[in-house]
Each structure stands twice: as structure tokens, then as C-alpha cells.
Design brief:
- By secondary structure, the protein is mainly alpha-helical.
- 82% of the residues lie in helices and 0% in strands.
- The chain has one domain (4-385): Growth Hormone, Chain: A (Up-down Bundle), CATH 1.20.1250.
């Protein structure tokens, strides 16, 4: 375990890494209209450019986790930053749609490595009874990156992509230097894909993945339908951007606090509240007929989804520790759950909305949240689902029976 000062430095550096990663994930929004005009992109092509990053994260999840297991978290984080720097330089200068899609895809793979190595590193170097709080702090910085990303995109539209993204590539290189200077006590492991497949049969790990996937589905859905509905109600781009800026800001404040709360009261305690709040907020999504009430609903949805991230990630780490799964592979499962949920929510939700309007995908998603809440409630009340005493430093609740 790291000392207090080393622990704080580790969380700060990993927080900076995921800040930069999510900044590049979010940078595309203000650039997309200009790129669509410049490259004559269809809606499908524009959607593919947007989706290339989470697709890269999805496909890079397991390789990134395996790299963390075999080479260690520090090497994996550095590899992710190098991929990010190279793909950022490519995105700065390329002028073909397919090449830009590939650059975004590589950024997503780099993000998968950065997250897998970073989360595994924090978990390995910190005690379990502070795991939720420290993961929450890093996540809060990551959400800050999603706030700053559109600002960078706006600057890039004014200065040109080569200057803005060239500078940011240098930031990624500087982070490689900082990361290499951090101590790491991770022991390499021979665990591989077989260990991952075996872990997926463990109810605790499956439950942790589900509670990561579910808010990612909700987030992907609202990120697609929210701007379109706000625009249909007459909101200009600045108002739409402001609504999502406030939503991300609220989420960034909530996430670290909820992580600390889950250390003291169990991983499921805050997530039950999040399930109830998200269900109600999603059901209200189609009700407003003006911009301000809809913007408020979007902020409430984001806040309720922000309740999940730190407890769900810590819960998955706890379960991995219990079942002997390397934390690098546990982080890979987190990436897999997030990316899969984002793709389902944005792609599937958008397709369903095109067929039958916003009501259908929103109602289905709200129903899944409600069903999950009901399942947790039934497991809590039945004799076999009562809370099991936890060993020291192992916060959480038994939902594996």
C-alpha cells in the first residue's frame, strides 16, 4: 500500500490522465458540424465518427486489461497515453473521413488502456475501505474533462485543429513523464482470457458489470435524444451546451461524495437511490413542452446516473478481490460495461426513437432501471439475501446468493 502522500499523488496523476482522456472523448461535439460540412458527411458518417471512440474502448477493453495484468498498470497507462498522443496528432492533420474515424478509434483503444491501468493501480495501492472515495475523486476529474472537452473543440474551430491538438498531444507526453515517476508495487500475473470468462459466471462480478452498464445506457440515450429534443423545442446550440455543461458539473460534484458514502454504508445503498431517481427522471423526459423544464430533467437524469459510477466500480473491484481476479482484468470489465452501455444507449436508443419516437426507448430504459431496483429490494427482503457481515476493509452487501 502507498503512503498518504504517495496515494494522493497517484490519484492526482491518474485523475489528470482520465481528465485528458475524457476531454478528447467530449471534444468532438463542437467540431462535428464543421467536419460534416468540410467532409460532406452524411448523418450515418457523422454518427460513425462520434461512435468510433467508444467502439475503440469496447474492443480495447480486454487487451488493455491483459496488458495491465502482464506488464503492470504503470506501463499500461503510459501505453494508453502514447496511443492518445499519436492519434491526437493524426486527428489534427488528417482530412479524410475514414482516417479521422480510425484516429478516434485508436484514441478509444488508448482510453481503454489508460482506464484499465489507472483504476487497477489505484485499487492495488489503496485500502479497500477507501476505495470508493479515491475512485470517486479520479472519476470527478474525468467528468471535469468532459466539461473541458467542448471548450477545446470550440478553440480548435477558431485556431485550426493542428495548433490546438498539437498542444494537447504535448500534454499527453508530459503525463507519460509524470506517470513513469510514480512507484508501482503491482505483481505480474498469468491470468488471461480464461480467467475473465470464469469471472463472468460469478454473480457479484456480473452484478457489478450490470450496474456499470445500466447508467452507461441511460447516459448514451440522453446524450442523443436530449439535444435533439431541446433543438426541436427551439433551444439554440448555446443553450443546449449550457444544459449539458450544468449536468456534467452536477455529476462531477456528486461522484466523489457518493464514492465516499459507499465506503461507509455499502456499495448498494447509494445505487438504490440512483435507480429510483433515474427511473422517475427518465419517465419525465417526454413530458416537458418547453426548453427550461426539459433542461432541468436532463440535469436530474445526469445527477441520478452520477450516483452509480464510483460505487459500481468499487463494487466490481471488491468482487474481483474476493474471487481472486486481477484488478487489471476487473478494470477491463469496467471498460467493457461502460462502452457496451454507451453504444446500446446511443445507437439502440436513437434507432428506436427513429421508429417510434422518444417515448419508446425512454420507457424501456426506465423500466429496466425499475426492474433492477425491484430485484435488489427482493434480494434484500428474502432470508437468503440479507446483508452478510463483511471482513475488515471490505465494504459492500451480499447480492450473490
Amino acid at each position: 500500500m502507498a503512503s498518504g502522500a504517495a496515494e494522493r499523488r497517484l490519484v492526482l496523476v491518474i485523475g489528470a490522465v482520465v481528465f485528458v482522456d475524457t476531454m478528447f472523448y467530449a471534444v468532438i461535439a463542437p467540431l462535428l458540424p464543421g467536419l460534416a460540412h468540410e467532409l460532406r458527411l452524411s448523418k450515418l458518417s457523422a454518427g460513425l465518427l462520434t461512435a468510433s471512440y467508444p467502439i475503440g474502448t469496447l474492443l480495447g477493453s480486454i487487451p488493455g486489461g491483459l496488458l495491465a495484468v502482464r506488464a503492470g498498470p504503470r506501463f499500461t497507462v503510459c501505453a494508453g497515453l502514447v496511443l492518445l498522443a499519436c492519434s491526437t496528432i493524426a486527428f489534427a492533420f488528417l482530412r479524410q473521413a475514414g482516417a479521422l474515424d480510425l484516429a478516434r478509434f485508436v484514441e478509444g483503444v488508448g482510453g481503454a488502456c489508460s482506464w484499465a491501468g489507472g483504476v487497477a493501480w489505484i485499487v492495488a495501492e489503496t485500502p479497500a475501505d477507501r476505495r470508493g472515495a479515491l475512485i470517486g475523486k479520479a472519476l470527478g476529474m474525468a467528468i471535469g474533462g468532459s466539461l473541458f472537452g467542448p471548450v477545446i473543440g470550440t478553440v480548435a474551430t477558431a485556431t485550426g485543429r493542428p495548433l490546438a491538438f498539437g498542444v494537447l498531444a504535448l500534454v499527453a507526453v508530459a503525463l507519460v513523464v509524470l506517470t513513469r515517476g510514480l512507484p508501482s508495487h503491482h505483481a505480474t500475473s498469468e491470468q488471461g482470457l480464461g480467467s475473465v470468462m470464469a469471472a463472468l459466471t460469478r454473480p457479484g462480478i456480473a452484478a457489478g458489470m450490470w450496474l456499470m452498464t445500466l447508467p452507461a445506457v441511460g447516459s448514451g440515450l440522453i446524450n442523443v435524444l436530449g439535444p435533439l429534443r431541446l433543438h426541436a423545442l427551439g433551444a439554440p446550440a448555446a443553450v443546449i451546451g449550457a444544459a449539458y455543461l450544468v449536468a456534467a458539473g452536477v455529476e462531477a460534484v456528486i461522484t466523489p461524495a457518493v464514492g465516499s458514502l459507499s465506503d461507509r454504508h455499502g456499495r448498494l445503498a447509494p445505487m438504490r437511490f440512483g435507480l429510483a431517481a433515474a427511473t422517475a427522471a427518465l419517465l419525465c423526459f417526454t413530458l416537458p413542452d418547453s426548453v427550461v423544464p426539459l433542461a432541468l430533467v436532463i440535469v436530474v437524469v445526469a445527477a441520478s446516473l452520477g450516483v452509480f459510477w464510483a460505487p459500481a466500480m468499487a463494487m466490481l473491484s471488491d468482487a474481483a478481490e474476493t474471487h481472486g481476479l486481477d484488478q487489471g482484468l476487473a478494470a477491463a470489465l469496467m471498460n467493457l460495461a461502460w462502452a457496451g452501455g454507451q453504444i446500446i444507449g446511443s445507437g439502440g436508443g436513437g434507432a428506436a426513437a427513429k421508429i417510434d419516437g422518444n417515448g419508446l426507448p425512454v420507457a424501456i430504459t426506465a423500466g429496466v432501471f425499475a426492474a433492477t431496483l425491484l430485484t435488489l429490494a427482493l434480494r434484500s427482503w428474502r432470508p437468503g439475501g440479507r446483508r452478510r457481515p463483511q471482513p475488515a476493509g471490505q465494504p459492500g452487501e451480499d447480492i450473490t446468493r
